[in-house]
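Hi Q.,

Before the meeting this afternoon, I wanted you to have the S-adenosylmethionine prediction in hand. No need to reply - just skim if you have a minute. The sequence and ligand are here:
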Amino acid sequence: MLSKDEWFETICASYASPPVVFNGRSLPGFPSDLIQSNTTGQAGVDTLKEAFVFYQDCINNFKSLGAGIEPHHHLLDFGVGWGRIARFFLKELPLENIHGLDVMNEFVEICRQTFGSDNFNVTTPFPPTLLPAEKYNFIVGYSVFSHLSEEACASWMQEFHRLLAPGGMIALTTRGRNFFDFCEGLKGEGHTGYLDALSRMFEDFSAARARYDRGECVHSNSYGVSGGGAMTSDFYGETFIPEPYAKAAYSQFFMLEKFLFDPSRQTHPIMFFRKK
Ligand SMILES: C[S@@+](CC[C@H](N)C(=O)[O-])C[C@H]1O[C@@H](n2cnc3c(N)ncnc32)[C@H](O)[C@@H]1O
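Predicted structure with the ligand bound:
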């Protein structure tokens, strides 16, 4: 049995010198560094490090919340991208039990090819999906509820309730309060592109922070912060979900079990939910 660090090294080796065989199968390959950077801001070992922190937080917290991952479980990676996060769960689950969903056809094709699995599917920006009810024990989504509009988040939570098996768990990241400060700090620094757009996404950052502090979901779809391609500004931008909102907004369907944010370790807070 590989230790956690050995597993991280194994995934890194599958990037640096593929193929790497694990449990009799080659680990998934990678798209170009450019595609990795365009979707996650970094490539190679750096982008894998961020993914590994999230993966470990999922494993540890699902377990401490009494819902450890077992080999017969099914996991859905929502907003799977090119499969950066999903591949880490190959330590706990057989390939057949790992599933992915994304709005970008190009990313789903990359996953289908690199994982050698047809468990990856394209979705419309809003549910429903054609996926079967109550099949999945876990749904994870890294850097997706940090972008979807309030309405899109609410619709997906309702769909997740349909998709999850009884007792199923969710781990979703969102933007943390410190991201307001980071973006405001970019103002007047001469940035271009996405960083410039972030610095302009709120006319008044103090007002946006105050809304967050009152427990409101804060979303901006101003010019330059929608993702491009299928990620249009009618549902995609930058999203900050505070803990009280996460607790109340989805309470018909889910218990918020934990809102985890340690900025010294994590770039995004994680919301852990349990299906009611
Ligand atoms: C910032 S990327 C993160 C990708 C991946 N989770 C990771 O961490 O590497 C956001 C992903 O969410 C996908 N996405 C955006 N809106 C979506 C929606 N409404 N439904 C499903 N996926 C969506 C995007 O296509 C993109 O792959």
